[in-house]
Write a structure and sequence with these properties.
This protein is an alpha/beta fold. The structure holds adenosine-5'-triphosphate.
Length: 777
Amino acid sequence: MSPAAPPPPLRQKKRRIAIMTSGGDSPGMNPAIRAVVRMGIDKGCDVYGVYEGYEGLVQGGDLIRQFQWSEVRGWLSEGGTLIGTARCMAFYERAGRLKAAKNMVLHGIDALIICGGDGSLTGADKFRSEWPDLVQELVDTKQLTAEQTKPYKHLNIVGLVGSIDNDMSGTDATIGCFSALGRICEMVDYIEATASSHSRAFVIEVMGRHCGWLALMAGVATGADFIFIPEKPRPEKWREEMCAVVAHHRQNGKRKTIVIVAEGAYDQEGNKITPEMIKDLLADKEGLALDTRITTLGHVQRGGSACAYDRYLGTLQGVEAVRAVLDATPDTPSPFIAVNENKITRKPLMQAVLDTKEVANAIAAKDFDRAMSLRDTEFSDMYNSYRTTTSTAIDNSVHLPPKKRMRIAIIHVGAPAGGVNPATRAAVAYCLTRGHTPLAIHNGFAGFARHHGDKPDGAVREFDWLEVDNWANKGGSEIGMNRETPVESGMELIASLFKLYKFDGLFIIGGFEAFQSLSQLRKAREQYSSLCIPMTLLPATISNNVPGTEYSIGSDTCLNELMAYCDKVKQSASASRRRVFVIETQGGRSGYIATLAGLAVGAVAVYTPEEGISIAMLAADIEHLRKVFAGDSGQSRAGRLILVNEKASKVYSAKLIADMIREEAHERFESRDSIPGHVQQGGVPSPMDRTRAVRLAIKCIEHLEQFEDRSDSAILSNPQSATVIGIKGASVVFSPMKEVEENETDWPNRRPNHEFWLELKGIVDTLSGRPDVPRPE
Ligand code: ATP
């Protein structure tokens, strides 16, 4: 034993958990560290940070340091990892891992949470499986005594997948991938403007050596003309295929061409496909002769502050990792924390690592079907969505026989939300691919009812491909949106118009009013034969309050806008330090937006309509703020935030709360109210809203298509003929409207009976150190 080594602590009553980041950095790692530190401390553990990845474990000393609660303040908005990361050659060797084990024992650490890619997690699992031998060797070689090592018979490992590539099997998203996708989409959106102005082609190279997730999702989100991904290498004739698609789009009037290529793109023979090769083809004077440029996005894809999703994913997974450590027994296999659709889960770490490696092996062995099948369902769904919305537009072989083709009406009901246009674009593209006639109803039911007689086809007209092709990244609603329901417009008139325009199916996109509209139409079917057609609703609202789903498109865009607003407001207090901002959020009678934004920005308190506000609660929160400001170190220069939903109370508005805080603070700190208002509807939809909109909209039209027998009796007897599509837990489901209306809807409060996110509010409170305040009766 080295004489300089500190005396080993005896086994503490308290658990000692270490958190480490390893491999490539990714946005969201800092929120994960913050969550592990604070959740760990809240659960009575000591939490240590291991700096510089495995290098820190191997070297020990000052690279392993205990974290205090206040040290992770403000980390939610920081990009990269603040505890450093490194590739560590020594950890590949047993000798390095032996040193690491010794340092762990010397610091009394018996659980390690690692946030990194598959390499880092493989190393972690190896470390755990060798642990008993390593400890024995430390005793045998007299580096430590048997007594010192006695409390450290077992090591708990929990993995968090931090990676921008989204290359880990078993989870839909890795911490950081949506931020990277956001960066790519932002850049492609910029490039599109110049491409369109000059009628140019751009070949954009994105990261992804073994995984095409970024390229694929960017292709879906931006409406790229062609993509190249490792899992689906192009056949020998890829040159002809790409040129035919691009030529077809150009013939249809498109002025810009975007091709996205993953770093790891190959053809089926294993020959690399480079951006230069693609450029030469597009620019070929004998062929398309397009003015073509290459843009390699490089490290901008990694950088910057995490998007809202990565912040709360990192946070929730960090919390779950601490729970997993505390639940673990010596026999529990090492877990990693995954997310499937909307559900955070624990899964066996090594299986996921093996499956991930299997994808790379399958690609190397040119077994591409297998590589594709090993990716998650969402991946192949997205691939099909991409094919449908872009390249297959020229392929008439997928048209349905004429008698199966339908006239499908598309209507937007409610208030604009990010993703409404991309959903419409995808639905129209899918309809055209299948030979259906997609029809736009302008300005909701109000527009339908009032303007149908103004001029022929004033309110209803056929969509055309070129028109919608530009909507992949457009916010708002291009066909117009209105909150009026069919009953308000006049059901008889609406039913007569359905008959006039001979609709065979209806696709509604919108929020709670859209839900109400579908409910009214469903009930009116008994009376009006023209309404006996399949109908389905894609929930789209920033409030995320539509029953039948845990996620409405538009809510992610709203969260990102609100988060950016809060970050700026918080930062603005850096000069004065002692300031509380009381920010009013939208959300109707649902506290979803306020709560999730609270998770993403680290609010001191969130006030929701579900819980309400009482004077006792405010008094307790003001008392808490007093303590917090009194204990501030002077270095933590940023404001604090309270988020109040617009309908949390009839009396306590954001302004009144801010005034009360100011009055009670007695000049020890100050407060301001702030209302972002309609900014929350967002400008450009977020990539998550865009890609989910595409995927879900296509599923909706596929669902409508299934109703070949559209006789009144067949439609009336089939509960699936009026549905709402939703993400529920880990699945995408079509729920019959009747069931959702009767069993899942809190009509007076215009929200679902059961809101899955309610328990997340407790996490916001825990991580901000809010005491257990009195709740309203
Ligand atoms: P990214 O996806 O960003 O590349 P990663 O975690 O896969 O992240 P790697 O470079 O593969 O990145 O691994 C990071 C570190 O984890 C390595 O430098 C090494 O210290 C450790 N490590 C990786 N694989 C192993 C292994 N098989 N055995 C022991 N240690 C490993």
